[in-house]
Design goal:
Order of helices and strands: HEHEEEHEEHHEHEHEHH
Structural class: alpha/beta
Number of helices: 9
Largest sheet: 5 strands, mixed, barrel
Bound molecules: hypoxanthine
Strand content: 15-25%
CATH superfamily: Nucleoside phosphorylase domain
CATH architecture: 3-Layer(aba) Sandwich
Number of domains: 1
Length: 281
């Protein structure tokens, strides 16, 4: 159950950012990185690691999804002087969170001086050219959740609710990711991401419809985070790990166990990509 409402949002941001600011101390994270299903290991490999559980941040909900640890992890990328503030796990709508609950940690990170958001997830590939185990850089997105975190009075008191969404994924950050992927030999595709509510997977008919809309990948997160970040002027990069072909694409039926297995085998190239990107920020 969420405690966060439109009425207490500004108070929640003020209270929550105090706790997060104290946790960050004199560190200067160059990016906030939301680590999706099975992608936690990147944060485990950081140096001088410290953790803050979501439950210790006022008004923040805890993660309940498999493979989502539900904590902030602050650390330094090995071999560099760059610190990053990770979320090991995120909040999804399908867990019962509101779009506002999902936006809150993004706004908290921004309040604490983080101005680049890298959001990552596991996704199904609608584009038949993509392969399981590839990464996909988001070039654009379709919000098919039916909700938006900027609905209500309070978001408009933080910044204008009418957020331009051209280039919601920052072109300069995308260039960095493509360059790092090429130099570090990581299979990085590019495509349009479609975020929906879940938690049931899609039907083949839905996937055919999304394909006709121009979507290349699909999953149950990210879009609310991107909207919240753009609302306060953060620059955003989005990366999916293709854990499966979307329903009906190759006859397979997506399931959570197979997805987590694929994510487990892709930790190393994911860390290689993320470390390279952070070093180049
Ligand atoms: N559909 C929705 N969400 C997902 C998928 C998918 O195929 N794969 C990983 N998350």
């Amino acid at each position: 159950m969420s405690l966060l409402t439109d009425d207490n949002l500004l108070y929640a941001i003020s209270e929550g950012s105090q706790v997060l600011r104290e946790f960050i101390g004199d560190a200067k994270p160059v990016a906030g990185i939301i680590l999706g299903s099975g992608l936690n290991a990147f944060a485990d490999g950081l140096e001088d690691l410290r953790f803050l559980h979501f439950g210790n941040v006022p008004f923040m909900n805890v993660s309940t999804a498999t493979g989502h640890r539900g904590r902030f992890a602050l650390g330094r990328v090995p071999g560099t002087d760059r610190q990053v503030l990770c979320m090991q796990g995120r909040l999804h709508k399908y867990e019962g969170n509101s779009a506002l609950d999902i936006a809150l940690p993004v706004w908290l990170m921004h309040e604490c001086g983080v101005d680049v958001l890298i959001t990552t997830n596991a996704a199904g590939a609608i584009n038949p050219e993509f392969n399981v185990g590839d990464f996909c850089l988001m070039t654009d997105m379709i919000n098919f959740t039916g909700q938006n975190p900027l609905v209500g009075r309070s978001p408009d008191l933080i910044a204008s609710r009418f957020v331009p969404m051209l280039n919601c994924f920052d072109p300069a950050l995308r260039e960095i990711a493509l360059d790092v992927a090429e130099r570090r030999d990581v299979a990085l595709r590019q495509g349009v991401y479609l975020g929906l509510l879940g938690p049931s997977f899609e039907t083949p008919a839905e996937i055919r419809m999304f394909a006709s809309w121009g979507a290349d990948t699909v999953a149950m997160s990210v879009v609310e985070e991107v909207i919240a970040a753009r609302h306060v002027g953060m620059r955003v990069m989005g990366v999916s790990l293709i854990t499966n072909m979307a329903c009906g694409i190759d006859g397979s039926d997506p399931n959570e166990d197979d997805m987590m297995d694929v994510a487990g085998t892709c930790e190393e190239p994911f860390a290689r990509l993320m470390r390279g990107v952070v070093a180049a920020l």
